[in-house]
Write a structure and sequence with these properties.
alpha+beta, 9 helices, 8-stranded antiparallel sheet, 20 strands, globular
Length: 339
């Protein structure tokens, strides 16, 4: 309550032009993407280290749209994909909408159970004004949805895929016809929806134990390294990471995975492809990181580890400039879509 009163007192101060633009962005995003309605119960989760202006803007916008049943909880940074401190898990389960500002609850039992009960999740990664203005408001999100549907049809009709690049990638995989391609459109308007902004990626279902070959990473590894300064080469056999080679960053990644003493950290969790024309690989200093890199146009993202569901953590590796072929048809050539 003290935190809410402090925010309300602050809202009576004069707002800067930048603050006005941020307020407009927050209102638009909650209306368009989250479908926030009057009377809904809203919980906002944010890090102590997060941008204060973003926290205030989304709190005020939520109060304007939903009314008085809006709460904000701010706590010190925790490892990604872990539950918030008590008593917040119960509040998450009771909310109609949970807004996560640089908080990662995906891949957790709490997120799964809350969604099953109807809670929808609206995630901003990164929760920074410049990034949201550039990669959300700066794109035609209806075109993003259209392209996502087109890519979903293409990958969904395929059976065999191949990822290559001049740096040495040659990774084969099979597409699971029994599961749907999922589209990260950024919309969380229906009960149980889960959305992340910036948007623009598709998740292609891979047949268990079918991914084999070499994947050279030249973009980011999140966590723990963020933007790479050198190539890291990963070798997969039957959808399991079996070798990591390269320089100091490859060794750091190897130590990170070993630290969990968890075999699931080496197992493929997902394969996604980005298609946001304004997304960038740019990352904050560790241990913070931004999932915006997974949406970069034409990028390939491989996720490892099941985090809070069946393991201890989750990590993503992203490469750009690759070529992707499905059933002999090029879909991406050197980072550019052919459709």
């Amino acid at each position: 309550m003290a935190r809410r009163n402090a925010l309300e007192r602050h809202s009576m101060r004069e707002v800067s032009p930048r603050g006005t633009r941020l307020a407009e962005l927050a209102r638009h995003m909650l209306s368009e993407f989250a479908g926030l309605r009057a009377g809904e119960r809203v919980l906002i989760l944010a890090e102590t280290e997060g941008a204060e202006g973003v926290k205030r803007a989304f709190y005020r916008a939520a109060r304007e749209a939903a009314g008085e049943n809006v709460s904000m909880a701010i706590y010190d940074r925790r490892p990604a994909y872990t539950h918030p401190p008590e008593p917040l898990p119960a509040a998450v389960a009771e909310a109609d909408l949970v807004i996560c500002l640089d908080i990662y609850l995906s891949h957790t039992k709490l997120e799964q159970s809350a969604r099953a009960a109807g809670t929808r999740f609206f995630n901003l990664h990164p929760a920074r004004f410049a990034a949201l203005r550039r990669a959300v408001l700066g794109v035609d999100y209806r075109e993003i949805r259209r392209r996502g549907r087109e890519l979903a049809r293409l990958f969904g009709a395929g059976r065999r895929g191949l990822i290559t690049c001049p740096r040495g990638s040659h990774l084969e995989f099979e597409i699971d016809a029994g599961r749907e391609v999922s589209i990260g459109s950024g919309y969380a308007r229906k009960p149980g929806d889960y959305a992340t902004l910036p948007n623009g990626k598709i998740k292609v279902p891979v047949v268990r134990a079918s991914m084999t070959g070499t994947f050279v990473v030249n973009g980011v590894i999140i966590p723990p390294i963020n933007e790479l300064s050198e190539l890291v080469t990963l070798r997969f056999n039957n959808s399991r990471l079996v070798d990591i080679s390269g320089g100091a960053e490859a060794k750091a990644y190897m130590r990170f995975l070993e630290s969990f003493n968890d075999p699931s950290m080496y197992v493929l969790d997902h394969l996604t492809f980005g298609f946001n024309p304004r997304a960038t690989l740019s990352q904050p200093p560790p241990p913070a990181f931004s999932s915006e890199a997974e949406k970069v146009m034409g990028c390939v993202n491989i996720g490892l580890g099941r985090a809070g569901l069946k393991g201890k953590q989750h990590t993503d590796v992203v490469s750009v400039g690759t070529t992707v072929v499905v059933d002999g048809r090029p879909v991406i050539i050197k980072g550019r879509y052919t459709i």
